[in-house]
Amino acid sequence: MFSTAHNPNKDHEVVPHLNDSISSLSFSPVADFLIAGSWDNYVRCWDIKQSGAMLQSKAIAEQNHAGPVLCCCWSVDGSKVFTGSCDKSAKLWDLNANTFTQVAAHDAPIKTVNWIQAPSYQCLMTGSWDKTVKFWDTRQAQPMMTINMDERVLCN
Predict the structure, then answer these.
(1) Residues forming beta bridges with residue 89, ordered by sequence position
(2) Among the listed residues 107, 95, 106, the one whose alpha carbon sits nearest the alpha carbon of residue 135
(3) Rounded CA gap, 6 and 137, in Å?
(4) Residue 151, SS3?
(5) How far is CA 126 from CA 57, 67, 97, in A?
(6) Cβ(37)–Cβ(64) under 8 Å?
(7) How far apart are the C-alpha atoms of 127 and 110, rounded to whole Å?
(8) What distance in Å separates the CA atoms of residue 79 and residue 56, rounded to the nearest whole number?
(9) What is the pLDDT of residue 4?
(10) Residue 47 pLDDT grade (very low, low, confident, very high; cuts 50, 70, 90)
(11) Pairwise CA distance, residues 117 & 29, whole Å
(12) Once rounded to an integer, what is the mean pLDDT over residues 54-65?
């Protein structure tokens, strides 16, 4: 842990340490869980707790892609994590079952994933360096809709 004299911003370092740079962070909408996608091909989950003025982190689980993980997001209920990678795949991590399943694909790295929860439907939106944005029913192998862009998708 850091002392406040040497840590004026009161930073907290999660353990175990990552092996490469972080490309995406997201807190659970329903629990004290933090996920991080990293250039070491992993997405990791930590339980973050506050104890007085100190934060404590406990590594819970991790999954890996075949390439760097560029983006990650949560489902609305906090039970699932979606990831996008340089391996051109998007995956669904069911935290309760600890399964990691491919649910989308592009022709180039996936830069953004967003879970959309609407009153009458739900889907995963992915954006890629292949200049497309796709919408997926995660139970189907083909996208529900594809939007062709003029340039690569670079946003989160």
Answers:
(1) 105
(2) 106
(3) 49
(4) coil
(5) 30, 17, 23
(6) no
(7) 6
(8) 22
(9) 47
(10) very high
(11) 13
(12) 90
